[in-house]
């Protein structure tokens, strides 16, 4: 295995040490392991048990749409499938570790689902996974870790942590991208605070996905030929949220005009919450030879604004709900960063100007119009510094 303590870099007099040192220390520890039943968390449990650590498994029971059609098939890419639930129990039994099932349906509905619906009512395109990681997954898990007397929390996320030793001798935790850029999940974790980040370990962060699958075979994990990676939002059975939004926002789905910037009507939309900025398919506009994309949603007039693909760009975005992991840029100064506006999108360069509770990120070159409600995450090399939610123009 490639799990070892090593020096990442020296920034002036600041030493940065990566924190997956031989799966965390040579001394055995009591570790709480989040066990979804997927291949990643199952491999994590096997790896840590093989290292001799004492493990306690935990799985959350979360809210799932009760209005979904009874015959709706839950996609194999969802984490709540019966196969995943069964696999978590099978792995725990095989390893001889307890598995706690914690019911968080009410908390999940209140802290994740309701804000998701409310954001769509306001014309935004939210990313509920980011809030879920901060409040539900890591928030609840770290509290449970303390209650059960565990020293660390381990999950199957593809990300890395490190400890940064400051000149005054103090230490702080930092978040790093995963080694496997195709599976990196650090974008979704920018909202974690120092307490959360210093308590967690990501054993898979320094591995590639093919290595994880090789370990799954080595550990003889119960994976069927139809196994699919967990993805998409977990609280409804469909791949996309449109049907879920139709079920829960029916009062907010009013037909309206699809218009160009000059007011020319080119079609009819079925309700603004069903569309997002950047969307090109499913607009229901026929008879046009040029491709159109959504560039704005006007909630006051109930209009969906479209433009020729690639016609509209932006130079900067305003960010709110700012969160910084280990350090904060100086106020009212232009600080250079790279950023992502989607989890695996290309990094773009620019500068951030922090002004109280908000900030403006100015891109080095123009970019496509961004969807309000999505997060812009800041990077310094492979370090995730923080981020914020993009506001509507």
Task: Lay out the secondary structure.
Elements: E1 7-11, E2 14-18, E3 30-34, H1 39-50, E4 54-61, H2 82-95, E5 99-103, H3 105-121, H4 128-147, E6 152-154, E7 160-165, E8 171-176, H5 194-199, E9 200-201, H6 209-218, H7 242-248, E10 256-259, E11 265-269, E12 292-298, E13 303-308, E14 313-324, E15 334-340, E16 348-355, E17 358-368, E18 375-380, E19 383-390
Helix pairs in contact: 1-2, 1-6, 3-4
Structure explained in plain terms:
It is a single chain. The chain has about 400 residues and is α+β, with helices and mostly antiparallel strands. It has 3 domains: about 5-220, HUPs (Rossmann fold), CATH 3.40.50; about 255-310, SH3 type barrels, CATH 2.30.30.280; about 315-390, Translation factors (Elongation Factor Tu (Ef-tu), domain 3, Beta Barrel), CATH 2.40.30.10. It has helices spanning about 40-50, 80-95, 105-120, 130-145, 195-200, 210-220, 240-250; strands spanning about 5-10, 15-20, 30-35, 55-60, 100-105, 150-155, 160-165, 170-175, 200, 255-260, 265-270, 290-300, 305-310, 315-325, 335-340, 350-355, 360-370, 375-380, 385-390. A 6-stranded antiparallel β-barrel has the order 14-17-16-15-18-19. The protein has a 5-stranded parallel β-sheet with strand order 5-4-3-6-9, with helices on both faces. It has a 4-stranded mixed β-sheet with strand order 11-10-13-12, with no helix packed on it.
